[in-house]
């Protein structure tokens, strides 16, 4: 769907703005050229980082570089949350899970809608369950075919019913959410509609958290990706109060734009035990300096609300960007990280995602941890690496059973 919208946008872009040149993505590896990457161990004006301790001390510097130049500043003001328990279904998924709904309200901003969190906890868990936290694209009702889940009442991308969810979208993305398998493997799955935090369109901020937090006059004001990442941390705040969830073992995960948010969330919030990036692409896992597939300029043009305005100043001059995405991935060290690509998803630059994951090795090395390992781009459908893992699956931009299978194995290694 998003791919389709993108295609549509690329076709109509010249009509929308006379100033915008038609964008032709480069898919020729020989045209990528050389692109020296900023060295995570060499912050400008600082001494070379040679220890884990020194890296920890430089984390704030690098996080601030991403805030200043890419995602915008995440407000640090504490926000009072009110957790309102909703319906509990003890025998969901044929008795295998307890399904819970919790609404997260913002006590200081009563006009703001809540984040409606949906949780499935395995019924056979003997102790608090480790969890995947993954925002969804079209409302909680999209991820499951269960008829009794309420339809989201928020703005949704589909124009079918004037941006309101309809029964038609129930279970529309269930294929990407193998709930039975996840709970059978002993994991809880926690989700919320990303549009609860901010509807995904340029004016969406007016009805989301960015309407009350941040400073729109600043070029480093946070963008929607920053808001979605922030929302993930607020959901984790709730999970820390839920005795059925092992809040020390919550994995931040996301697909595509939500993958970008999950990476930014995990980089900033060390409470996430690990991170999974499913085809997060440009502005997520892949290297901006590689001119392959989507580019910074194209990203900012098509999605002007996702990033800080400052990011646009690199549209035509990516080498001037003080960071690249391997440093974002490095900020997840020393925690486990999984970066996944899909072969046909050239727009996300699979090789750029691999090289970005590979370039975290010096930082993982400071902790005496093996990062990705293999120097060569792996064969399709082969998971490689150690504390940093990678695969490129056959097929299109998507979340498929093969991906989940790897993520569950990755999580197993983490919880045992
Ligand atoms: C578009 C966008 C990508 C994004 C993707 C998605 O294709 O250009 O950057 O990752 O949408 O979120 O599906």
Automatic annotation (TrEMBL):
Pfam families: GCE_fung (PF22244). InterPro entries: AB_hydrolase_fold, GCE-like_dom. The keyword Protein transport does not apply. GO terms for molecular function: carboxylic ester hydrolase activity. It comes from the Bacteria. Residues 1-18 form the signal peptide. Residues 220-364 form the 4-O-methyl-glucuronoyl methylesterase-like domain. Keywords: Hydrolase, Serine esterase, Signal. The keyword Signal applies. This is Acetylxylan esterase. It comes from Rudanella paleaurantiibacter.
